[in-house]
Amino acid sequence: MKGLRGIFINLSLVLLTVGAFPSLVFANTAEEAASGDREDMENFVKMAQEELNNADGIDAVSQFRQDTRNDTTGKWKHDKTYLIQIEESGAVLNHGIHNKDLYGDFIDGFQTVKDLREMLKGKDADSDPVCVANGATYSCAAYYKSPFGIRPNIVIGGFDHAKDDENITKLKCNQAVPSITAKDLHENQEAGADQESLKKDLKIFVREAINWATTLESPGDAAKYEPDILSGVRCFTKDKSPWKHESIYFFVMTQEAFVPVNGADQNLTGSNFKGVRDENGTDIGEKIIEAADDNGKGDFVEYLWDNPVDNIDLLPEAIANGKSPGTEEKISYVEGRVFPKFTGQTNTVFIFGSGVYPKEMKAEEPSTSSGSDDDDDGCAIAAGSGNNPESTLFNLLLMVSGLFLAVSWRKRSVRKA
């Protein structure tokens, strides 16, 4: 009896553990799934599906995306085995290795993706994954719950492809003609426009972008699908659009400082800016949230950041270490908005922002003038503008002369006393 009782107790513990942590049953990693076994790949996708179904809101989903792209443990990514998240339309929400290049583009042109989407018809976010043979291995896919509660999205595992494959359709954004474009802002900035003028234009630029996103039905080829707000703002990430040019780009942040969209680098998707500080100690995420942490609230914020035209590809690594990736002075206008028309999270505030790098904020270059009266009306010494050896020697002589006169004056004063 004791033996049977022990077996019963152990079995009960196993069942309780499975009930509390169902994903443990499907704990096949990318490294294990890479072997080519169908069951391993199916369980790998099932594990991803359950984590996404249990994710609480866009912040948790953003974190999942970041984790799957940056994984080095073999859990979510190993060699050519990784995860891709797409909408029903085939638009890429997250890509394990080509996210920076393919975010928002469509991969439904691949036969494997077509087959998987067809097999998923009639299923829901709780249905088991479906699989198709793909060479020596298998590709599997499953629906998962959208953080917006509109319709499920799709997670795919075991499908590898080149980033420039002919089956990929690039995102075609609906045309927008804002009164001030990203190119206008960049050119005004480079021409040395004053801060107040740039700030005025920047505020108009951001507000027109928000209004455009609010009325947007759907981006490009996804017109027949019900969009969410982040589907529309993918257009902010694409070059050759009125919303992105050289140093000017958009970003979107949540109240928890997660970044669902970053126009400069889509590898920042899912990053958390909370605690990210610049060289002056400014907590950038906190400052942005304070400025726009309410529907319709907006303000300007200043901090040090990387200028995209410098081609410094250090953003994800720097953010992960809690540091600003650059030291350029930046002024951003940020504004919070809710979008009940697009999402089930009617109280979610999305913070939209864009910024400029004013020329007048940068430290002036040391003058190379000779310090002559013709150059500075005799104020070169007081302004400290002379840097050549002659002016340095002259300044030194003046200092010595001043000390000599001061000492002499004091001695005469003592004698008189």
Index terms:
417 residues, alpha+beta, 5-stranded antiparallel β-sheet, 14 helices, 12 strands, disordered C terminus
SSE topology sketch:
Layout: H1 2-20, H2 30-33, H3 38-53, H4 57-70, E1 83-86, E2 92-95, H5 99-102, H6 111-120, E3 130-134, E4 137-144, E5 153-157, H7 182-190, H8 195-215, H9 229-232, E6 250-253, E7 258-259, E8 261-262, E9 271-272, H10 284-292, E10 298-305, H11 315-320, E11 328-337, E12 350-356, H12 373-376, H13 380-383, H14 389-416
Antiparallel strand pairs: 1-2, 1-5, 3-4, 4-5, 6-8, 6-12, 7-9, 10-11, 11-12
| Strands ordered across the widest β-sheet | 2-1-5-4-3
Structural class: alpha+beta
Classify the beta-strand content into a percent band. 5-15%
* DSSP, total strands: 12
- What is the number of helices? 14
- CA-based shape: elongated
Q: Helix amount, in percent?
A: 25-40%
Largest sheet: 5 strands, antiparallel
Rg, nearest Å: 29 Å
Q: Oligomerization state of this entry? A: single chain
Order of helices and strands: HHHHEEHHEEEHHHEEEEHEHEEHHH
Low-confidence segments, given as residue ranges, are: 11-26, 218-227, 363-398, 403-407, 409-417
Average pLDDT, to the nearest integer? Answer: 78
Ends: how far apart? Answer: 116 Å
